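Let's do one together. I've listed all components of the complex below, 289 residues spread over two lines.
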Amino acid sequence: MLPITPTDFTPWASLGGGILIGVSTVMVMALFGRLTGIIGITAGAALWEDRGWRIAFIIGLIAAPLLWLLANGAMPQQTVSDNLPGMAIAGLLVGAGTALGSGCTSGHGVCGLARLSGRSLVAVNTFMVFAVATVFILRHVIGGAF
Amino acid sequence: MRIFFGFLSGLVFGIGLIVSGMANPAKVLNFLDIFGAWDPSLAFVMGGASVTALVGYRLAWKQSAPLLLPSFDIPTASDIDGKLLTGAAVFGIGWGIGGFCPGPAWTALTIAAPGTLIFVPMMLIGILLGRYLKFNTFAKRSA
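Okay, and this is what the predicted structure of the assembly comes out as:
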């Protein structure tokens, strides 16, 4: 069980990182003509035709901390829950939910909002409400579990 | 070329996730903790990414075709159905428990926290389960 880890408000770093995510999203559209939904790319890498660039994209995602390590001499800072049953359930729900709902934070969030898709806006509002409610229950009703 | 630019796009995306704080579940959970240790930073991630994509997509669509594949392939579904709502709700609960959505989970794999190493394989099993539900249970119910 982890205590709540305080984090600093980082508007500029978050804006800059967000713009990089947006640049990657535009690269994928200009080069491949596809959305940058990570869950779609993951499923496509495993299951569909034209898998090469999708597999390469996932490898790029996985390689990013190594580039960070080369540039900064340390791995990126993060705090991951060490509640392994909890993380297993979380992974299962994230995979099943995004596959069933055809999109995640990137597919419905970034790409869907950029396309002004009403369907994606509904999805984003739905997962935001459920995520906020889940954190509220775990932290403030049950207390301190994650 | 496709492999190289696929890798480069993924690398830029992953660096964006790290710089922005999305690859740190503690930051994501604090963003979601509106009534507690709220850290609004991640609203800037979503804002920066969507506005960049909003403008960039319109520039990309001025071409008749993408540079490395024969045609654009963009989903046309506009229906708001049970699959969309149930899927988004289930995803939201999982995101609220672990603080990982799919992109950051991949990127965090190399940092190799035990929680990440169990999350990612379970996410892949979840994708298979979700696709089964999408194309079987839900499809039959609406047929």
